[in-house]
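To whoever is on call:

I kicked off a structure prediction for a single chain this morning and the downstream step that reads the tokens threw a length-mismatch warning. I double-checked the sequence; it's 82 residues and nothing unusual in it as far as I can see. Pasting both halves so you can look.
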Amino acid sequence: MFEGADLKLGEKLIAESKCSACHQQKVGGDGSAIYKPAGRVNAPGVLRGMVESCNTELNLSLFPDEVTSIAAVLNRDHYRFK
């Protein structure tokens, strides 16, 4: 699902969009607990859908390839779906 995603772009967008700050407000601590809600994100498509939800909710105006790049970074760093 994430083949060919631009990981550098995803990393840049995560920093620019202040994802960690938002997640810290929602779950406390360093915000990483948001990545492991029990059973909620259980497949690559669901992960991408969650990033798209943030895009919509926060009106980030990300393009589809940018959403995929962010999801690819999150998959690499937190989920490790095949």
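Update from on-call: the warning came from a stale cache, not from the record. Cleared it. Sanity check on the structure: Residues 7-79 form one domain.
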